[in-house]
Predict the 3D structure of the following.
Amino acid sequence: MKNNRNIFRSIIGLAAAASLVACDNDDLYLGSADTDILGSAAGNVVYITDGNGHGDVSFVEFSGSRTIDLFARSSKPLSGDCTVRFAYDASVLAQYNASQPTEVPAFPQANVTLSGNGAVTIASGKTASDAMTVTMTAADGIDPSATYAIPLKVTASNATLKDNAEGYIILVQDCTSFPGADKTYNGEPGMKIIGVLEVNDQNPLNVLPFTLKGSGKQLFDMVVLFSANINYDSTTGRVYVSRNENVQAILDNREKYIKPLQDRGIKVILGVMGNHDISGICTLSPELSKQFAQEVKTICDVYELDGVFLDDEWTDYNGAAASPLPGFHEATYDAASQMAYYIKQAQPDRLLLIYRYFALANGVAINGVQPGDFVDYVLNDYYDTGNPCPAWPGLRISQAGTCSWNCSEGNYDKYQWFPGEISAGKYAYNDYVSLPALREEGYGALMIFNFYCNPSARLTPKIISALELASRELYNAELDYDGSWYPKDY
């Protein structure tokens, strides 16, 4: 598995592909002009790119099926029509492998379809063809952790192909057969492990190396990108979703940081919390709350996220209470529940997670709907060993999480997962938590806050040891940790 990752990095480096390729490409050419051919002779000279402007090599990661668009292009209008044809050709891969340190296997031709039989035309006077769409579908017997290649031979009529443009390679990782993240214990659905990652410091891909031996299931079920914010623009009067440069970098590069998690069955959740002004989860009128909920939905739609995590912190609550502006008021449980209700109403198909803190500590019925009916999970603050269900009427214990763990805190003697029962019906005693008791009492989730696994960090061995314990006690399985670490590279 590690070798395949290294092959991929090497290939992308040699191909000068600076980022992963989005496969819902349109006809917009985002790359720079090809200066090598700007001064060419009067004849037609063409070359190939994908929709992001990458030439020679593209990379696609998919589950089930995926498409990528390729274009024939010229740096200047052509004199006469030019037909460019693409065809699957193993000789292109043989030539490519000869230039690489490690051989890349072919993706099965039977699982590749080229639109228009692989032919596109650059019309006379134009500089680009319409898209030639390559469709790939899941293949039997594919290693989901390996990189494969779709080799395409390129020929052109009434034109000269730019040097090295006679072949095009699409690197493929078919993730369809990954086992996913849904786990069980004795045949019953297992607890969900929710990793909350401070993305200012930690790459969200760092949950990927943790799987269960035997089944290959991912240990983490969800990753919360912590965190986007709710803010107020005093110039426009708008309450909006703000994202710092780290959150936005992850969203802008979803193919690199989000989709690999989703392909393996891990849900990616957007954290939202206050940010030092009067707009907050619990300080808005119904009208402003509805508007904000719609903007949250738009963000989730655009970046194809799986849900929202609400955390009521860091708002200027005193300022909101004293504000003369319409739409703002003192913090209330009603307003916090109203925000949760409108977000769920706007996107009922996505998950809504509640971090039970401040005005989100207690749920309130909205429009006659019990609070437990418009949220998916309610998660206690760490060190809180209570049952959150009474505070959120209608909430089932399978939707509840207690005894959350802040794994970045250094004093592990103050909070330990315990492998066995402490006493009948007890899952916590002082600062000790019995994982089997949590499981047997029916709790549906366990939140791990500020998760990380940097090999150089002092606490990492203890974090891994705790996850090994969780694997055994919650899923009756041994942890398989491959030792990988993804640095913050955004």
Residues 184-481 form a domain with the TIM Barrel fold (CATH 3.20.20.80). The chain has a mean pLDDT of 88. The CA atoms of residues 382 and 404 lie 4 Å apart.
